[in-house]
Amino acid sequence: MATLLPRAFYARPSPVVAQECLGKILVLETKDGPLSGRIVETEAYLGIPDKAAHSYGGRRTHRNEVMYGPPGHAYVYLVYGLHDHLNLVTSAPGDPCAVLVRAVEPLSGEGRMRQRRPVVTLTALTSGPGKLCRAFGIDRGYNGHDLCCSPLFLVDGPAPARVVRTPRIGVANAGAWARRRLRFLDPESRFVSRLRTG
DNA sequence: TGAATGATTTACT
DNA sequence: GTAAATCATTCAA
Q: Which residues in chain A, range 84-123, keep a C-beta under 7 Å from any nucleic strand B atom?
């Protein structure tokens, strides 16, 4: 039963939402049909006290304005000049928290994803935050989109058998925050961006 | 108005 | 394993 996740799902602390997002389905409806994928990897960003977050220290800028708004909205931004990242705004208005979607398993529309992203292996299609955005065609035009409405939203799905927590990626300059286990992933999926070096 | 930097990916050695 | 690509946003003057 694919029920659309209500706003209440997002109106909780980031780590809770990040963990419960595993197994849920990300859906993007397009004129050519839906693209969907099962979320297998996320990261939690805790807002004001989190040195690794854009909203660290209560900074409120044009870019992260969406995180200060109500939960259940998409926060999409460009990093390194060429990669888009998809975040889910969590918590409550005024509390700039978010969950970064790092990897999904393609469920439908895989053919169109491959067209957007010429790639050699299937797992390379969506196994990374920038990769999945390119595969889905998600760009900054979706920034601020309400995830309770079409065309971009999440639906319920089975939780993974086990959940593994690891330190977050790409935030080595965040001091003690870099060591917090705020990355959640399904160890049984081969689509996680980096499970282990082994 | 100008300069520095980044929640990454890809290619090449 | 190391390095380059590439530009919107941010901070300083």
A: 85, 87, 98, 100, 117, 119
Q: Which residues partner with A26 through β-bridges?
A: A37, A154
Strand B proximal to A173 Cβ, under 7 A? yes
CB atoms near residue A3 (< 10 Å): 8
Reported as a pLDDT band with limits 50, 70 and 90, residue A173 is low
List phi, psi (to 5°) of A117: -130, 85
How much is the pLDDT for A197? Answer: 38
- The integer distance in angstroms from the CA atom of A161 to the C1' atom of C10 is 42
Nearest CA among A69, A73, A64 for reference residue A94: A69
* Bases of strand B lying below 7 A from some protein CB: 6-10
Is A54 within 7 A of strand C by CB distance? Answer: yes
User: Which pair of structure tokens corresponds to residue A26?
Assistant: 């990300």
Residue closest to sugar C1' of B6 by CA: A80
Q: pTM score > 0.70 for this model?
A: yes
Structure tokens at A192: 């996680």
> Residue A19, CB, less than 7 Å from strand C?
no
The secondary structure of residue A117, as a DSSP letter, is S
What percent of chain A has pLDDT above 70?
A: 94
